[in-house]
Amino acid sequence: MKRCAIVILLYLPLLAEPLPSWNPGKNRDAIIGFVEKVTTPGTPDFVEPAARIATFDNDGCLWSEQPMYFQLIYAIDRIKATADEHPEWKETEPFASVLKGDTKGALAGGEKGLLKMIAATHAGMTTEEFRAAVSDWLSTARHPKTGRPYNEMIYQPMLELLEYLRENGFKTFIVSGGGIDFMRVFVEDAYGIPPEQVVGSSIAAKYEVRDGKPVLVKTLDSHFIDDKEGKPVGIHQHIGRRPIFAAGNSDGDFQMLEYTTAGDGARFAMIVHHDDADREWAYDRDSHIGKLARGLDEGPKRGWTIVSMKDEWKAIYPASE
Amino acid sequence: MKRCAIVILLYLPLLAEPLPSWNPGKNRDAIIGFVEKVTTPGTPDFVEPAARIATFDNDGCLWSEQPMYFQLIYAIDRIKATADEHPEWKETEPFASVLKGDTKGALAGGEKGLLKMIAATHAGMTTEEFRAAVSDWLSTARHPKTGRPYNEMIYQPMLELLEYLRENGFKTFIVSGGGIDFMRVFVEDAYGIPPEQVVGSSIAAKYEVRDGKPVLVKTLDSHFIDDKEGKPVGIHQHIGRRPIFAAGNSDGDFQMLEYTTAGDGARFAMIVHHDDADREWAYDRDSHIGKLARGLDEGPKRGWTIVSMKDEWKAIYPASE
To answer: What is the pLDDT of residue A1?
Structure first.
């Protein structure tokens, strides 16, 4: 039986070339070189499988985030869908603007208005009701530009990277400013990442027994923002060890990449640069979403890999079914 | 190569009888029966491997918890070890009592005093400093009754249960009122549970860059208590799906077992009953630690399995090395 195992191990690498949607070049080589380095036993850079932790931002790193975070589009759609139950919304901001289709007006209230939208669409329901609502939305809503379901606006080259890392013994996590309960509805199907490997922003849940049935109710009693300095905090709380590989796309990921690369031994940090106005979007320093300035300025000096979507990716999204 | 796989699959069940330290009987049969039921494809109770989530309390369920929680013994030992740096402690409670060896006096201040002890021994240091301090302690401290290192006062039958579940495709998690950072120091070696599968109580961490080096500093800015109603909350936050198997030993685990068994399909809930004064400790309804009353009263009616350490376990701890 030993012979079978050896035969399998010998043929496995020949089965498929990794990262087929990545153009050949130094960045693709750098990724493959890093993975080969940390997985080759007996070398100084070898990392035990248990410590092969890879963390990925979600918005703008694994799926698109324009013209605004998809979770915000969900909140807007949800406000419209439940407006009949809330006649008072016609006279109250930010709901009145949302119902008039004036997104800019709805967002004019800043954080305070946003919090009201979250309260109306994310709190006061059980975790199971929330999951069902998001799941319904994903199955019917379509992106205004591409016409695709939102959970099909995921990046084919990143799917291949996730898979390639897992084939090499990595455990892949999402570490995102997005809502943990929101992401968990689709990430297992979309990325092959189970719910227990999702780190995200969250509002508190409260345990209650309603008519003998235990439920978790989403509340605004407290919250955690998994962004910027919050990302290493979320990683420590949830994973409990420092990643050796991290990928992001905005300055909200800076601290995650900094924390990852400050560890001993071989480390890899990667920034997806949105520079493809034809096939996706082009934005960085001046963007209201996914702003990327410090990462572009300091990343290369820190040895981080900046990936050009335009030059390095053969495809953006998976082929439509 | 297909043949090799079939041969391996056929012989695997014969390799070893599961749960060797459990006496034959209805509870051992119930555990094995449950596992066989949820892992047999094509039956109504079959559960996909990804959903085979098992959660275990730690104190009193996987290791001992008498004469007091081992983490509290750590705090007391740590106060003594660092007293030279804090001359003011000689005059301040609860430290003065700790230094006089008067544990009862130290705990007389209730929650307020306890919080001071936690502040002095768990906060104000980086996560790496804390890990090093706990690791040092585990390697030198010995339990007053058994003379064992604390991380060798783990239950042999529970180690076998964890292993048996994992062999059957379960993912095993700790869900404990104990400190998440404290447990993560030893649980991987002790139980084969990696840090990312530990859910526990926690105090907030803060991200800082000190002299160019990123650190996480443990603070008392906020905290989470992973006990009672907090356990389903911690499970949802961390794992994101409901366990199908849960084990505890005290009423602090009641809600975890209630939440677990309220899900659809086959579920298993188990309570370890400390009734073995000779080989371990005997305590339940009137205990100041690990109080178990509601679980004994309601558990059997709810179909939960009450395990007698005295009658069902052939051994308590692993054989000493």
So the answer is: 43
Nearest Cα residue to B263 out of A135, A214, A206 = A214
Coil/strand/helix, residue B221: strand
Spatial separation of the C-alpha atoms in residues A157 and A206, rounded to whole Å: 39
Q: Where are the domains of chain A?
A: 17-65+154-312, 70-140
Evaluate whether B102 touches B86 at the Cβ level (below 8 Å): no
Taking the C-alpha atoms of residue A144 and residue A133, their distance in angstroms, rounded to an integer, is: 20
CA–CA distance, B82 with B87 (Å, rounded to integer): 10
Q: Is the pTM of this model over 0.90?
A: yes
Degrees to nearest 5, angle at CA A231 with A226 and A236? 110
Q: A278-284 contacts: CB < 8 A, separation 24 or more? A: A278/A310, A279/A309, A279/A310, A279/A316, A280/A64, A280/A66, A280/A309, A280/A316, A281/A64, A281/A66, A282/A310, A283/A66
Which residues sit opposite A305 in a β-bridge? A270
Q: Say which CATH superfamily domain A17-65+154-312 falls into.
A: HAD superfamily/HAD-like (3.40.50.1000)
Contacts of B177 (CB under 8 A, 6+ apart): B57, B59, B200, B201, B225, B226, B227, B230, B252
| Model ipTM value | 0.93
> Helices (DSSP H) in chain A: which residue ranges?
2-11, 26-39, 70-81, 95-99, 103-107, 110-122, 127-140, 156-167, 180-184, 187-191, 230-238, 254-261, 294-298, 309-312
Cβ-defined contact of A237 to B202 (cutoff 8 Å): yes
By CA distance, what is A207's nearest residue in B?
B229
Beta bridge partners of B271: B248, B306
**What is the average pLDDT value for chain A, to the nearest integer?**
94
A-chain residues near B259 (CB < 8 A): 207, 214
- The shortest CB-CB distance from B236 to any of A127, A222, A236 is to A127
- pLDDT tens, residue by residue, A7-17: 555 555 556 79
Q: Do B180 and A240 touch (CB under 8 A)?
A: yes
Query: Helix axis angle, A156-167 relative to A26-39, nearest 10°?
Result: 20
Cβ contacts of residue B24 below 8 Å, gap of 6+? none
State residue B1's pLDDT score: 43
> Minimal Cα distance from B230: which residue of A?
A207
- Give B112-147 pLDDT, tens digit per residue: 998 899 999 999 999 999 999 999 999 999 999 999
Burial of A147 (0-12, 13-18, 19+ CB in 10 A): exposed
Average model confidence (pLDDT) across chain B: 94
pLDDT higher than threshold 70 for residue B98: yes
| pLDDT confidence band for B6 (50 / 70 / 90) | low
Q: Which of A225, A249, A195, A251 is nearest to A56 (CA)?
A: A249
User: DSSP letter string over B229-267?
Assistant: THHHHHHHHHT-S--SEEEESSGGGHHHHHHHHTSSS--
Contact B188 A230 (CB under 8 A): no
Q: What is the DSSP letter of A304?
A: P
The whole-number pLDDT of residue A9 equals: 55
Minimal C-alpha gap between A276 and chain B (Å): 33
Nearest Cα residue in chain B from A184: B240
Minimal Cβ distance to A236: which of B50, B127, B258: B127
Q: What is the DSSP string of A230-282?
A: HHHHHHHHHT-S--SEEEESSGGGHHHHHHHHTSSS--EEEEEE-B-TTTS-B
Domain B19-67+154-312 in CATH 1.20.120.330? The answer is: no
